[in-house]
Amino acid sequence: MDKIFERVKELKAQKNAVILAHYYVDGNVQKIADYIGDSYYLSKIATTLSENVIIFAGVNFMADSAKVLNPNKKVILPDSTADCPMAHMVTTAQIKKVREMYDDVAVVCYINSTLELKAESDVCVTSANAVKVVKALPNKNIFFIPDKNLAHFVAEQIPEKHFIYNEGFCPVHNFMAVKYVTDIKKQYPNIKVLAHPECPRLVLDYADYIGSTSGIIDYAKASSDKEFLICTENGVCHKLVQDNPDKLFIFNDLSICPDMKKITLESVVASLESLTPEVVIDKELSEKALKPLEKMLELAK
Ligand code: 13P
Ligand code: SF4
After folding, report:
1. pLDDT value at 2 more than 90
2. Phi, psi (5° rounding) for residue 81?
3. How far is the CA of 152 from the centre of ligand 2 (A)?
């Protein structure tokens, strides 16, 4: 591992590159990253970097957003097939249809979406800022795409607005089962359940805390409790265990995002060496998708 660290350090300096990593990527990749965070943090940090090259250890929609926010930088996604299935779970035709049905509607696009969807939306959100951003919108009607679970979670907190839902979901979070949570609670009566809002409502009903990956990490660190059931992707265990060696974290072995796990130490080193595969985006699409991303950064401040 020491040899790889040295090689990464040397290559980063040589290529004027910086590594961003989402909490869901492999722990060893997190170890070599300069910045690790949730989707909101990573999109914010992407606008402040001085390096010419961004190596994005995450999935397509994250690297695409970083490129849109930095059109003059080289953005590299170490495995170009690392894609989020939920990002494709709505169509631009559906957006058009809802716009025709409602006068006063804002299309609110979870950042886990393609650039084509962002380009047709009014504002982007992440799980960390969705409530704040939607509350700040003047519109009565909100078409929340693509995630149904996050949409319902946000809607419950903003009853004054009318939500129109879409049927998208995250395959990792949506299949978190209530039976699993109740079984663990029986085994560990004092356990606290920390859940990502991409989980189904019935699972969220058992949660002591609901929030983004960073929110979950911060909550566990600040809490005086000692046992936690983590209802999100297992990559967060790296930071949780590092920050809290005295606490117990239980994860569902099935909660693994195969696309996030495509980013390996080897693929990151290969990307640093070759500066490929580069994210390339059509200029017009990029300019259109930039608007909702910038609006999110503005409203979430
Ligand atoms: P956050 O990074 O906003 O917690 O989102 C989780 C996720 O599913 C990213 O793919
Ligand atoms: Fe997409 Fe779910 Fe993987 Fe996040 S965890 S990238 S939402 S499939």
Report:
1. no
2. -90, 0
3. 18
Residue with CA nearest ligand 2 atom 5: 257
Q: What is the pTM of this model?
A: 0.96
Using H for helix, E for strand and C for coil, what is the string for the chain?
CHHHHHHHHHHHHHHCEEEEEECCCCHHHHHHCCEEECHHHHHHHCCCCCCCEEEEECCHHHHHHHHHHCCCCEEECCCCCCCCHHHHCCCHHHHHHHHHHCCCEEEEEECCCCHHHHHCCCEEECCCCHHHHHHHCCCCEEEEECEHHHHHHHHHHCCCCEEECCCECCCCCCCCCHHHHHHHHHHCCCCEEEECCCCCHHHHCCCCEECCHHHHHHHHHHCCCCEEEEECCHHHHHHHHHHCCCCEEEECCCCCCCCHHHCCHHHHHHHHHHCCCECCCCHHHHHHHHHHHHHHHHHCC
Nearest atom, ligand 1, residue 216 CA: 4
In the reported structure, the alpha carbon of residue 18 is separated from the centroid of ligand 1 by a whole-number distance in angstroms of 21
What CA–CA distance (Å, rounded) separates 190 from 295?
Answer: 41
Which residue has tokens 């990002």? 87
In one-letter notation, the amino acid at residue 20 is L
Q: Which ligand is nearest to the CA of 257?
A: 2
| Average per-residue pLDDT for the chain | 97
